[in-house]
Amino acid sequence: xxxxxxxxxxxxxxxxxxxxxxxxxxxxxxxxxxxxxxxxxxxxxxxxxxxxxxxxxxxxxxxxxxxxxxxxxxxxxxxxxxxxxxxxxxxxxxxxxxxxxxxxxxxxxxxxxxxxxxxxxxxxxxxxxxxxxxxxxxxxxxxxxxxxxxxxxxxxxxxxxxxxxxxxxxxxxxxxxxxxxxxxxxxxxxxxxxxxxxxxxxxxxxxxxxxxxxxxxxxxxxxxxxxxxxxxxxxxxxxxxxxxxxxxxxxxxxxxxxxxxxxxxxxxxxxxxxxxxxxxxxxxxxxxxxxxxxxxxxxxxxxxxxxxxxxxxxxxxxxxxxxxxxxxxxxxxxxxxxxxxxxxxxxxxxxxxxxxxxxxxxxxxxxxxxxxxxxxxxxxxxxxxxxxxxxxxxxxxxxxxxxxxxxxxxxxxxxxxxxxxxxxxxxxxxxxxxxxxxxxxxxxxxxxxxxxxxxxxxxxxxxxxxxxxxxxxxxxxxxxxxxxxxxxxxxxxxxxxxxxxxxxxxxxxxxxxxxxxxxxxxxxxxxxxxxxxxxxxxxxxxxxxxxxxxxxxxxxxxxxxxxxxxxxxxxxxxxxxxxxxxxxxxxxxxxxxxxxxxxxxxxxxxxxxxxxxxxxxxxxxxxxxxxxxxxxxxxxxxxxxxxxxxxxxxxx
Length: 652
Prior knowledge:
Blueprint (H helix, E strand, L loop, with lengths): L16 E6 L3 H9 L12 H4 L11 E5 L4 E7 L17 H15 L3 H7 L4 E3 L24 H10 L2 E2 L8 E2 L9 E2 L3 E6 L3 H17 L3 E6 L1 H10 L5 E7 L23 H11 L4 H18 L3 E6 L2 E5 L11 E6 L12 H6 L1 E9 L4 E6 L5 E6 L14 H7 L7 E3 L7 E3 L2 E11 L3 E10 L13 H13 L6 H4 L2 E6 L4 E6 L17 H4 L21 E2 L1 E2 L2 E2 L3 E3 L3 E6 L28 H12 L18 H9 L14
Parallel strand pairs: 1-16, 8-9, 8-10
Antiparallel strand pairs: 1-27, 2-12, 3-10, 3-11, 4-11, 5-6, 6-7, 13-14, 14-15, 17-18, 19-20, 20-22, 21-22, 23-27, 24-25, 26-27
Helix pairs in contact: 3-5, 8-9, 15-16
């Protein structure tokens, strides 16, 4: 079993192809993994496959990794629809606002979290806050309002809010005076239930049964993901929805309660906004902790929504490279799978690092095959519950969209895979956090990024600081659904030189680095485009800087995608961290003894081998593909006269 920790490399990719295939539900995807059709799942392993009779614990073909959850499943409540809420901003002197809060508290008492965890065979933990398990320390030590599952307490909360069966017709009503003199019929509670997730379906049906017992009118509908999305996030004609969130900072899952987010929750509270802004713009960790503890308790007190559980199960991947036709030369175990904190094995670092343990290489000198470790090649097959919907990094929202897009488009920095508080410079070779003086505001955060030299987009256009500056302004101007949370505090960017750019925010915040993770767009492609109507895949312009790229029929930027079936990406041959080692010898030609420079002697050593072949020497295989040829000379030529490795290239 692999915990959410370990080593990872900063160079790759190590496979030639990355294929995402669609399976529709966790059980079908698990069956595909068990049958060797895919190498890794994008969701937690179903309990039915972890426990007997399909026991992956004892299956040598399956490797399990502990799930360190960064996500929360919860009942999303629409605070703008009666009786969940009174609409508008919460007024704590308004009786209907207070009564609606009693109704929400009753729903919390009707949420049987223990039954939900039991239904998941214990591979979940009940939650009372929206702080992910990986950030437990941020919950603090102070006591929280706890809403235990108890029908009596639920009925008591309802009565205190004026809700009961006032006319004895077995249907609950509301009395504004709490006395039955004036009685209002309750609207039917509209609940939307995702048909693709059996655990969410079970949770919603539990709540629905409780509503029926109490005579609360309801209209719960089981529907596919797209239908639920429309009614919850677009039309917002819902009262209850079994939702999910994830976050790598303690405020990530609370952003939906902030009025400035204009989320589907519709919880508008001046008190919460005050503390959330204190947290968001905290200059020190102490200020952040204080504000975080305050807004956690406000949300728990008001039951703006109901946290249910976080997953505590396991992720799974194939232990060995599969027996696929035409790929027999790839033998042995998979190496390089990274169990990222809160994400599992399906992540950027796995796709960058994963490779077959050994590759069978034909050695013409001896005339037979030899097994060589750590070469590049093969195909990594990733399972997905759902197909990608949008290839646009401006508006793509779903997890599976970004499973693909994160391999194509890259940010300046990335999250460290095993530490929730650390970042890894990526397109940037370094960064420096400082301040700038904004008129009328004072000190605001400024982050200076120095880019890695020579990075090229997939269409070979050079990445420049102008692309970075353009991206932030573009994402803000067009109100990017995916990245507005990051760029809403962006003020302006200043290009300092041909490698350096300052990103200036309109406030001071210790969270500004997390706002710097926006995927950089190629200005020459996106400038002048209206992302509401322009889709890059329609013009063969899905082009970023990432380790994998879209390429079909020889056209870079053209997607290889069959809707409902698969997405195919190819390794980027000019990736800025590609898996090469052009320093093959020292200054006097001793192969395998590297001197830290790429010189004519390195070129000559490879050229001599090509002219006079001998036994395969891994040290001369610059691009690590099992063949020593002109392509190795080309890689030496690209890096000629440079130090190797450069500081941004080496292992962590």
